[in-house]
Amino acid sequence: MIKPLIAIIGRPNVGKSTFFNRITRSRNAIVDDHPGITRDRHYGDVIWNEKTFTLVDTGGYIENDEDVFAGKIREQVRLGVSDADAVILLLDGKNGVSPFDRDLIELLRTGSKPVFYVVNKIDGLEQEKNIFEFYNLGVESLFSISAEHGYGVSDFMDTLTESLPETPDAGAERFLNIAIVGKPNVGKSSLINRIVGRERLLVTEHPGTTRDSIEVVHEAGKKSYRIIDTAGIRRKRSVSDKIEKFSIIKALKSLERCDVALIIIDAAEGVTEQDVTIAGYAFERGCGCVLLLNKWDLIEKGSKTEKQYINRLKEQTQFLNFAPALTISALTGLRIRKIFKVIDEVYEQYSQRIGTGKLNRIMEQAFEENPPSLYKGKRLKFYYTTQVSEKPPTFVCFVNFPEGVHFSYKRFITNRIRQHAGLDKTPIRVWFRQRTGRIEFPKKNLKKQDKKKKTIRSKKK
User: Fold this and answer.
1) d(Cα 261, Cα 233) in Å, to the nearest integer?
2) Residue 8 in contact with residue 56, Cβ under 8 Å?
3) CATH topology of domain 5-171
4) 5-171 with 174-350: one CATH topology?
């Protein structure tokens, strides 16, 4: 059974994102006093009274607004209402009835979806009188709440969930998490729209259209993917707006919780310093990575053009030499289907676990090929190597002098593990540690050691 979808709509700055964050128990939606922060639809799973549903935050709905994004936002709101099983219309109890509220009610009356009319910013009993004027909108039942302080929220949610059908355990779902990152206006949202086959995300020619990290669930083959569209990441010195700073922080956090990052680069513009910086962010966080040269349809091509572009990209991002690279076009759909095949290949290696026996045979072969050097006159001795975690695959080599392993020899060992363990498309981490643990005394000396300990204790007494 598919989880019910509940959409929150309302005019700008009515408190939709604050309500969304409270109900989903997250801070996933950016909240600010400045209207128009939310532009795309933002999804979050909720379990309330053992009922599971998905809550959708939408942008502020205004008719005939001069903002360049207003028309696109209205379309996203209409799509959100169309997809939803029920709608929450949030009204502003602090500022009273607005003409925009009437527009929204007229929009909702044309449909057959259940609608819950909720007056927000009612912080206590003394403010309940503020809801009376909203009955002039022609609605029969109103709920009063404070999304910020929690007043009335539980009572409303109890009523809402009573109308929802039973749903299966949400924990049964398993997604492969994909984050799409890049500079502003490189085609991140356009790529997602092309993947899902419709205008799921707001797209304009204006850089910075996406402000929040937006999640989209997509199925390809027999696998489910949670795709996270992020705000464009500009240079630090170019960012002064508070909202943009929050957006970039959320984009970077998306890298921390993804399995594979798709790093989008504008092929028409070429690889820039900021592209390399963003790739570095993904590398530092240990993500599986795929490099995508978008807008390939704008490039004049010859027989070797693609190879030359990818070679140039690899030269500028040498720390990601393991990451596959593709030339694509979100506009025309060029090689879009191939992306998921590459993602699956990267993820398979990213979540791989190598047996200790196989791993140590690889190490023995490496030591025969290139024996460890001397450190302060003593030969480096590697005892054994084991994998301690995956995502990414992480290995620990136990050695007598970890500080004596030269960075070039570390790189040699890393490359040998990557080569012989079939980990050529994923980041891997190799740590060097000194072997520790309890010292085992020979059996014949155990009694002597015990006697020494007892003697020391008796002297202290």
Assistant:
1) 14
2) yes
3) Rossmann fold (3.40.50)
4) yes
Instruction: Give yes or no for a contact between 108 and 87, defined as CB atoms under 8 angstroms apart.
Output: yes
pLDDT bucket at 139, cuts 50 / 70 / 90: confident
- Candidates 137, 84, 75, 72; CA nearest to 111 is 84
DSSP state of 441: -
Give the whole-angstrom CA distance, residue 32 versus residue 358: 54
| Fold designation for 174-350 | Rossmann fold (3.40.50)
Amino acid identity of residue 455, one-letter, is T
Q: What is the pTM of this model?
A: 0.63
Alpha-carbon gap, residue 64 to 127, rounded angstroms:
32
Mean per-residue pLDDT, 235-244: 54
With contact defined as beta carbons under 8 Å apart, do 314 and 271 qualify? no
- The Cα-based distances of 142 to 90, 99, 107, 111, 382 in angstroms read 10, 18, 18, 19, 72
Note the pLDDT tens digit of each residue in 395-429. Answer: 999 999 999 999 999 999 999 999 999 999 999 99
Q: Where are the domains of the chain?
A: 5-171, 174-350, 356-434
Angle of helix 16-24 versus helix 153-162 axis, rounded to 10 = 70
Q: Which amino acid is at 263?
A: I
Burial class (CB in 10 A: 0-12, 13-18, 19+), 211: buried
Which residues lie closer than 8 Å to 417 by C-beta, 6 or more apart? Answer: 354, 359, 362, 363, 395, 423, 428, 430
The CA distance from 256 to 258, in Å, is: 6
| Ordered strands of the 260-266 beta sheet | 214-220, 223-229, 176-182, 260-266, 288-294, 325-327
Look up the CATH architecture of domain 356-434: 2-Layer Sandwich (3.30)
Return d(Cα 387, Cα 394) in angstroms, integer. Answer: 6
Smallest Cα–Cα separation from 192: which of 207, 203, 182? 203
**End-to-end CA gap in the chain:** 72
